[in-house]
Input
Amino acid sequence: ELRMEFFYREMRRQSGLLMEGDKPVGGQWNYDSENRRRLPRGLAPPPAPRFPPDATTREVMALVAARFGANFGDLDGFNWPVTAVDARAALEAFITQRLPLYGDYQDAMATGQATLFHALISTSLNCGLLSPREACDAAESAYHAGTAPLNAVEGFIRQILGWREYVRGVYWLKAPGYAALNALGADRKLPGFYWGAPTSMACMAATVRQTGEMAYAHHIQRLMVTGNFALLAGLDPAAVNEWYLAVYADAYEWVELPNTHGMALWADGGIMASKPYAASGAYINRMSDYCGGCAHDVKKATNEGGGKPACPFNFLYWDFMARHADKFRRNPRLAMPLKNLERMSPEKLAAMRAEATAFLTALSPDY
Output
């Protein structure tokens, strides 16, 4: 079976990046366990570099405004490099200003902090303004110069040399039939809040608002907020794939499809990832500050007892696990949540599933 970690190790050997002979620098291949810190209060990430639109870009923006002005998105926030010179400037700004703390906070989410310590070079990589090797070499040089720690440099290189190249391989190996796979039989219409309609879920509102303003959200927002909701709610993979392809500036089908279809939605049944990346509200609460100001109570899984209504991610998670329990029992990585499901009282599970049914039935489709 295909697994990114083994592919990544081979790519490290072939490229020589972060290697000492045939051994990884530092003695470990992967420092993912050191990439999961929540952003502490008071830590202000440096501002993202700005690239004012040139004359050609302004001309294209005017054309888009004239023809597609009513569509989802905001032209005023356009700030992406459109030349190789600007792309290299974006890379340099990341290496010198944000890479040192990228490793600690690459999975963090924070209200009003769209870019955090992320590189913001995926648009430049995917449209050919910047080479993947150049980006990886720059990060490795920062490690050897002592200006960035290993957990940050390895985490950044893994995103490019590991995930990006692995995703490309999955796409060319499995397309075009890959897009038609629907292992979980998901068929629900995309809710309107993916296109900016109001939602009471703070995490969804923040991520979609940021997406509309910048055509950008970082990988955890895409995977564990918009993607996680789509997985738990059983949204139609074709509609979800179309949304990701439409709203993000770095989205090209070869990189978008495996990430969305396989990683976020598990629609490929495990080709891309060994288990569905399903999570309750507890994960979002652990990695962000979204839940503090939310209309929902992240500690509740049903609406019993008054107070704030329950977090939809909680009852949707257990409804999802119960709905697919027979299929998931064959997956050893899901043994623990399935044991917890089995220990749950029938009354509690029935109450959560009733909440899920009512919530999903009330969703307004896209518009």
